[in-house]
Amino acid sequence: MERLVSSVTRPRLLTVRCILKLTLPIRSAHAPAKSDGLSVNYHDQMYKEWLNNPQSVHKSWDLYFRSQNQGKSSMSTSVKIYPTQPTVSASNFRVDAKALNDHMAVAALIGSFQTRGHKVAQLDPLGISSIDLDRERPIDLSYQFFNFSEADLNRQFALPPFTFIGGHETQLSLREILRRLDYVYCRTIGIEYMYINNREQCNWIRERFEDPSQSQLSNDEVHRAVQQLIRTTHFEKFLGSKWATEKRFGVEGCDMLIPAMKMVIDTVIQTGVDTLIMGMPHRGRLNVLANVIQKPLEEILCQFNEHLKPSDTSESGDVKYHLGTCVERLSSVTNSKIKYVLLANPSHLEAVSPVVQGRTKAEQLYRDDEKGDKVMSILIHGDAAFAGQGVVYETFHLTDLPAYTTHGTVHIICNNQIGFTTDPRVARSSPYCTDVARVVNAPIFHVNADDPEAVLRVAKEAAEWRCKFKRDVVIDLVGYRRHGHNEVDNPNFTHPYMYKKIEKQTPILTKWTDKLINERKINNSWYETEVANYEKRLATAFDNSKSDIYDKQKKWLDSPWKAFFTKTPPFAHPITGVPEERLQLIGSKVHEVPDGFTLHKRLETNFANRTTLLQERKVDWALAETMALGSLLLDGQYVRFSGQDVERGTFSHRHHVLHDQEKDLAVHVPLNKLAPAQAHYTICNSSLSEFAVLGFELGYAITSPCTLVLWEAQFGDFANNAQCIIDQFLSSGQAKWVRQNGLVLLLPHGYEGQGPEHSSARLERFLQMSAEDEDRVPDLENSAHTDLSMYQLENANWIIAHLTTPANYFHILRRQLAFPFRKPLVLMTTKSLFRLAACQSSFDELIEGTTFKRIYPEEGEAGHNPDAVKKLIFCSGKTYYDLIEARTEQKLESDIAIVRIEQLSPFPFDLIEIELKKYKSAAICFAQEEHKNMGPYSFCKPRLNLLLRKMNDNRVDKIEYAGRVSAAATATGIKSSHLTEQKNYMHQAMKI
C-alpha cells in the first residue's frame, strides 16, 4: 500500500487519507477511542464476514483488508486498523491499486453527499435560495472531483457499510449511486447530521432517508394531511374575509406547518405520549389553536369581537395571537385522551421556549415520567428569532442537564426567510438559521414547505427520532410570508423582488390536490365535500361566537389548577409557625453525615456552630431557610431550588449539598433524609444563564400550586439578564393571561463596597412594576375581606420584600404555600447579614402561633416613650443594622425610633399609619443605602405622604431623606468612596 500511494494523484491521495477520517469516525459517545488514526466501528461487520469468507466482500475490500492486516496502511506506517487480528499471507497476490482507490473514492463521494448535500438541496419555494447564505456549491459533490470520467458512470461499485442507498443491493453503478444520493440529499429535503458523534444515531438517519423502501406515506396519512391543509387554508381565508384589516399573523406561505404538527403529534402519541406542552410565536397561532389543538372555533372567533370584556376587572387581557390554552380531548388516531397545552407568549418571541421546558419538566415529575415517555414538548420558532435571540442557545444548553432535561423536544421553524423587514443576509452570520441547534448534536431536517409529502415524511421521522433517542430534533420548514409581517403590512417597500415571486405562487393546497387528483390518490368529489363541510363549520361557529357565553377570558387559561381555588374571601392571614420539636428534628437531621463520609474541616466547625445555635434555641439566616424548606418537605410539599451556585450558596452559607472530600462526585443532600415519607427536595446549580433558567423555573412554578419553586441570582444585579421573563411573564402574567404562580426570586442585595455589579438588585424597578396606586389608600368597602393585608395580597400582581430577620424569612417562605392563591415573591436577600451576630432569631419567633410581620415597629427605648421621640426613621433591609449601630454610638436610643418595612409591596398602609400616629411629634425620615434615584425611597415617600394627608398631619411633604445622592451607576467600586458615602448618610440619618 505504501508503494501504491505514491502512484495516486493528489486529489485521490487526499481521498484515500481522509475518507474514513471525514465520514467514519463516528462512535458512541461512551465508547473508548480506537487507534490513533481511524475508527474500527464501520468496518466491523464487513471485516468479520471477510475473516469467515474472503469471497463474501467485493474484491477491492478483500485487498484492502489483506493489506491492512499486513500493517501496510495507505494512511501511515504507524497505523494498524486491526492489530489484534491474525494476519493473512499476501505472498501470492497483487494489490489492484486502481480498484482499491476507486472504491474508496466512491465511499468518499457518498460521505460528501451525506455531509454537504443539503447545501445544494432545492429548499426555497420561491427559487431565490437565500436559505443557505453560503451559496458556493461544494466541489466534492461531483464525480469529476474524484478523478472519475463519464466513462466510469456505468461501472459497478461495492457500497461501503455507512450507506443504505442500495437497500438490499450491495453494489450499484456510479450513475445510480449519484442518482440516489441526489434524490436523498439534494432535492426538497436537506439533512444535517454528520456532526453527531454517535454511530447509532447517524446510521438511524441514514437508513430512514437513504433506504428507498422507507419513503412511502400511507393513503390514510395522505388523506388526513389533505384534510388538515384544507382546514388550514380555509380558516385563514375565512378570517381574511371577515376581518380584512385585523392583524391575525396568519400562516399562509408556511401552510404545511399544521399538517406537519399533526404528523408529529399523531406519531408520538402512538408511542405512549399523552401530554404535549407547546410554545410558539404569534405567526400561525390561531390556526394551531383551531386545527391542531382543536379549540372550539367559537372561542377563537369571539376574540375578534370588539366588545369583548374580561371576566375580572383586574385583568388587562392580551391580543388574541398571544393567548394560550389547555385542552384535553380524544385522539382520532389512538382513541385515547390527549392533553394539549399551548402556553401564552408575549411578542418576545423566544421567551416562551424555556418556560415550555420548565412546564414540561414539572409535568414529567408529577407523572413519574422519568424518561419523557408520556410528556413531551414541541416548540415552534421563527427563523429570524431562532438565529437572533440568545435565549434559544441558552435553552438548548439546558437540554442534557440532569435537573433540566425534558428528554427531547421537537423544534419546528416556520422559516419565512425574513425577519419583519430584515433580510437574512444582514440578520445572521451563520449559513442557516438553525446552526445554533448543532451545539447539542440535534439533527436538522431542512424541507421545502411547498413539497407536502417531503414535509410529512420529515415530520414523521423527526417525531420518531425524538421518541427513540429522547433528544432534540429540528425541522426547518422553509416557506415564505404571503402577506408580509402581518395582514396590514406592505412588504413591497423593502422586498419587492421577493414579493413579486410570492404573488405568482400558487397556494400549496391547490398545487398538491391537483397533483393528487391527477395521480388518483384522492378524488375531486371527496375534496369538494371536505371543503364545503369545513366552511359550514366556520360559518356556524361565527354565528355562535356572538353569544355572551364565549365572552370570558378564562377560556384561554393555559395552566388550570384543578381543585385549588376552592376558598372564597374573606381570607385569614396564614399562621406559618411550626412546632418546636419539628424545628429541632430538622436542625439535627441536616447536620448528620453518613458513615464513611468525609466532611470539609471548615464545615465541621460550621455545623458545630449551628448546633450551638440550636441548643440556644436560635437560628441564623441559613438555618432559618433550611428549617422553612425542611418543614414544607415534611408537610409533603415538593421544593425545587435552582440558580448559580445555590447548592453551596454564593456566600458559602447554605451547604445543602455536601461533598465528600475524599471521593469524586460523592454527595449528600441532608434535606432529603429528614423522614421516609417526606416530599423530595431538588436543589441544583444551574448553567450560567439567567434568562433561560428563570424562564424554566417560571414554567415549573405555573404547572402546580403545590410546589415551592425558588430561583436565586448569584448576585441580585444579574437578574437584569432575565428582565424579559420578569417583565413579560412574572409581573404581568396574571393580568394578561389569568395565570397565577408562586415563584420566589431570591436576589442578594446590599452595599458592601463590592462595586456596581455586586450591590444592587435594582429594587426600585420591581417596586415600579407593582400594580398599586400611590394616591389611594386601599379600604375594605365593597369587599368581603376583613383583613386589609389579605385584601391587598389577593389583588397584588406580586409581593416584594426586603427583610431584616431570619424569622421573617422563615415565615415568608412558608407563607407562599399557605396562601389560598399564588403570587410571585421577589425577595431582596442579604449578604453581610449571614454572619452578623445581631441578625439572629429565637425559636419563639418560629413556633406555632407566629406569622410573618409586614413591619417591625421600634421595640427599644424610643418605643416606650413615643412622645419624646424627635425623629422617626423608616427603612428596610441591612440599613436597619447600620442605623442601630450609629444610634447606639451616638447614644440616641430615646431620641430616634426606627421602623423596618419588611413587605414593601403591597405597602402596609394600615400598620404604617399606626406608627405615624404613635410618633406624632417626630420628624419623619426615610433612610436607605441605595442612591436617591434608586432603592425603595421613591416608592415609599409618596405613600407616606398619602397617609399624612389622610391624617391632616402637618408633616406632609416634609419627609427627610438619608442615603446616597443620585447617581448613574448603582455603586462605587472604590472602597474609600464607599466608606465615605456610608459615613455621610449615617450622619444625615442621625441628625436631629
TrEMBL record:
Its EC number is 1.2.4.2. Its cofactor is Mg(2+); thiamine diphosphate. One of its GO terms (biological process) is glycolytic process. It is an enzyme of class 1 (oxidoreductase). InterPro entries: 2-oxogl_dehyd_N, 2oxoglutarate_DH_E1, DH_E1, KGD_C_sf, ODO-1/KGD_C, THDP-binding, Transketolase-like_Pyr-bd. GO terms for cellular component: mitochondrion; oxoglutarate dehydrogenase complex. The keyword Ribosomal protein does not apply. The keyword Oxidoreductase applies. Its main location: mitochondrion. Gene3D superfamilies: 3.40.50.12470, 3.40.50.970, Multifunctional 2-oxoglutarate metabolism enzyme, C-terminal domain, TPP helical domain. CDD domains: TPP_E1_OGDC_like (cd02016). Residues 619-836 form the Transketolase-like pyrimidine-binding domain. GO terms for molecular function: metal ion binding; oxoglutarate dehydrogenase (succinyl-transferring) activity; thiamine pyrophosphate binding. It is found in: Mitochondrion. Keywords: Glycolysis, Magnesium, Metal-binding, Mitochondrion, Oxidoreductase, Thiamine pyrophosphate, Transit peptide. Pfam families: 2-oxogl_dehyd_N, E1_dh, OxoGdeHyase_C, Transket_pyr. Belongs to the alpha-ketoglutarate dehydrogenase family. The 2-oxoglutarate dehydrogenase complex catalyzes the overall conversion of 2-oxoglutarate to succinyl-CoA and CO(2). It contains multiple copies of three enzymatic components: 2-oxoglutarate dehydrogenase (E1), dihydrolipoamide succinyltransferase (E2) and lipoamide dehydrogenase (E3). This is 2-oxoglutarate dehydrogenase, mitochondrial. It comes from Adineta ricciae.
